[in-house]
């Protein structure tokens, strides 16, 4: 299995264009989902997780086979044949010129006594592989969890932005109705009505865009869960607190130390280094002699067709019993020259070990970068939230003043719309900073081994 990229590179970014999942195969009538229900369902039905679980089952089979290779082997064979012309009777060793019917039965057992420790080293290697495969399953589960949390947060964000857009339309529509009345009374010019109506149209478009963003975010989550034929998809919205005003007190190095000790992708990479070391031992075992023990049991039967009546051929089972032979053999194989196959196999195993060591460094570096990036993003989102909160307060005051002045005819609709749009944008920025901060903290919680919840 190809090694996975780093967590944050695998996580779908907090954007509307979250990647579509695999073709939806699962089906449910459930319409209201909590975050934990999404996570549980995703883990149970994700196709990638199932693929990795099958890989783990294959690794277990390989281990079982490595153990079974230590057991004696047993095989039996039998044949029945016809010979024509001049032949040697296999029982009497007499040359005859007749048709001969023959039958042979043999049973052979063999057991390896010494094979350069290849079998035992192979068992140790497969033990490392099966544990690494199990950790790969845990790793892909973590990826699925983080992706679902990211998609879930994106839906919450899009819902809040949609709600804000609807509130803004209501405010603008109220102002448009008032302006229309003032125009009919002759208090304002028609241009005021036209400009405020244009703002209503702009707000209506913003609602459409926000609804599309929400629909796409829900679709992304639905696809991550591998759902199909689901309607009225709804999430249970948890209370997401505003970012804490206190500075984030976390130590990146401590988080990394915990992560590299506990994250399955790093532990799996370390196990594959151990597996690669055992693969070197297996390859080097081919330099040593091979010794095995064989035990055989065989018998035979022959019948000469068209014999004179005076000659009596012993019956089938009597011949099998009388011709029974036994044997014990020791087989010693000493490698002398194998066209450099053994040497090249050892060299390839050494290269694979070096690659495995590099993969552990790549995994650790990726985790360190992901932690540093998540920490920096969380700090930036916290600062951005604080700054945007102050900005929102200022724009809110400016908008209230502009609204009063506009109602009194002291400013034109353009200035009013500028103040309103600044206020709306600050609201949107505040919501996005809030959810970005929340998600990045959840990523840091993940690297600290804490359960992810909202």
Describe this structure in words.
There is one protein chain. The protein is of the alpha/beta class and 454 residues long. It folds into 2 domains: 31-71 and 115-288 and 335-447, Outer membrane efflux proteins (OEP); 78-109 and 292-334. The chain is built from 10 helices and 10 strands. The protein has helices spanning 7-10, 35-45, 47-68, 118-184, 190-224, 252-262, 264-284, 316-322, 341-407, 413-447; strands spanning 26-27, 32-33, 73-83, 86-88, 95-97, 100-114, 227-228, 234-235, 290-304, 325-333. The strands form 4 sheets. A 4-stranded antiparallel sheet has the order 3-6-9-10, covered by helices on one side. Strands 1-7 form a two-stranded parallel sheet. A two-stranded parallel sheet has the order 2-8. The radius of gyration is 39 Å and the shape is elongated.
Compose a concise summary of this entry.
The protein is α/β, with parallel strands linked by helices.
Strand order of the largest sheet: 3-6-9-10
Q: Give the tally of β-strands.
A: 10
Corresponding CATH architecture of the largest domain: Up-down Bundle
CATH superfamily caption of the largest domain: Outer membrane efflux proteins (OEP)
Please state the overall shape, judged from the principal axes of the Cα atoms: elongated
* Strand and helix order: HEEHHEEEEHHEEHHEHEHH
Structural class: alpha/beta
CATH topology of the largest domain: Outer membrane efflux proteins (OEP)
Q: How many angstroms separate the termini?
A: 33 Å
- Domain count: 2
Mean pLDDT: 84
Number of helices: 10
How many whole angstroms does the radius of gyration measure?
A: 39 Å
The CATH class designation of the largest domain is Mainly Alpha
- Oligomeric form of this entry? single chain
Largest sheet: 4 strands, antiparallel
Helix content: 55-70%
Low-confidence runs (pLDDT<50, min 5 residues)? 1-6, 8-26
Strand content of the residues, in percent? Answer: 5-15%
